[in-house]
Amino acid sequence: MRLLLVEDELDIQTFLRNSLEEAGYSVDVAGNAAQAEDMATQSAHDILIVDLGLPDRDGISLILRLREMGISAPVLILSARRSVDDRVRGLEQGGDDYLTKPFALAELLARLRNLLKRNNPAAGEATRLRVQDLELDLLRREATRGGLVLQLTPQEFVLLEYLCRNAGRVVTRSMILDKVWGMRIQPDTNVVDVHIYRLRGKVDGKGQQPLIRTLRGVGYVLKDR
Ligand code: CA
User: Is there a cis peptide before residue 102, judged by omega within 30 degrees of 0?
Assistant: First the structure.
């Protein structure tokens, strides 16, 4: 799930980026309305979080502009403005939900999940990935193999999701670094190998047909049959 966060306050920006990434979202961050417009045109987002008090323009006018541009992804307004008038105005003018600051992270995440579900009536299928007896519930961020829940860290889940989306195809270490870690880590680290090792320990349990294969010097492949 790709998310666009429009927020000018650096503390909240950093906190949200980290928390949302940990929850499995790929996060683009814009610090003002102009930047947000650019980013929204450059790539498609599944959902947006928009602060109302932006340095260059009001968040509401940004949302109206995005809607004019044909962007229909759900928008969660996150604002310090708490009055009923402000909230009603936000919801009437293109916002799909409204959360006031200060907020609880768990509530923010729950609201995002709801918006994504509401926006996609076929969520039951579109948010599940299945490869052999391995199944990923992308909304609940839960993976099962043979019906048994795998205890994965958020990062392991993202990695497994990437492997599942590419099941049957070879993915290289640098592809994984790029897609899962966003290249923020030096490519010479062994972070991929370490995570694959741990993931394999959880996915390919004792007595099970191994799904994650290593191709020496090339990368990895999740077997689809
Ligand atoms: Ca602000």
Answer: yes
Which residues in 102-121 are b (16+ Cβ under 10 Å) and which e? Answer: eeeeeebbebbbebbeeeee
Mean pLDDT value across the chain? 89
Q: Do residues 180 and 133 both lie within one domain?
A: yes
Query: Are 6 and 84 in the same domain?
Result: yes
Do 9 and 81 fall into the same domain? yes
Q: What spacing in Å lies between the alpha carbon of 37 and ligand 1's midpoint?
A: 16
CA of 58 to the centre of ligand 1 (A): 9
Q: Which amino acid is at 134?
A: L
Q: Is the dihedral of CA 9, 14, 18, 21 positive or negative?
A: positive
Banded pLDDT at 122 (limits 50, 70, 90): low
Ligand 1 midpoint to CA 80 (Å): 8
Question: Quick one: which H or E segment has residue 78?
Answer: strand 75-79
Query: Is 0.70 topped by the overall pTM?
Result: no
**Which residue's structure tokens are 């814009």?**
30
Residue 72: the pLDDT is 87
Same structural domain, 100 and 190: no
Q: What are phi and psi of 81, to 5 degrees?
A: -75, 120
By the 8 A CB rule, do 1 and 26 touch? yes
Give strand pairing partners of 6. Answer: 30, 50
**Within this chain, do residues 152 and 207 fall inside the same structural domain, yes or no?**
yes
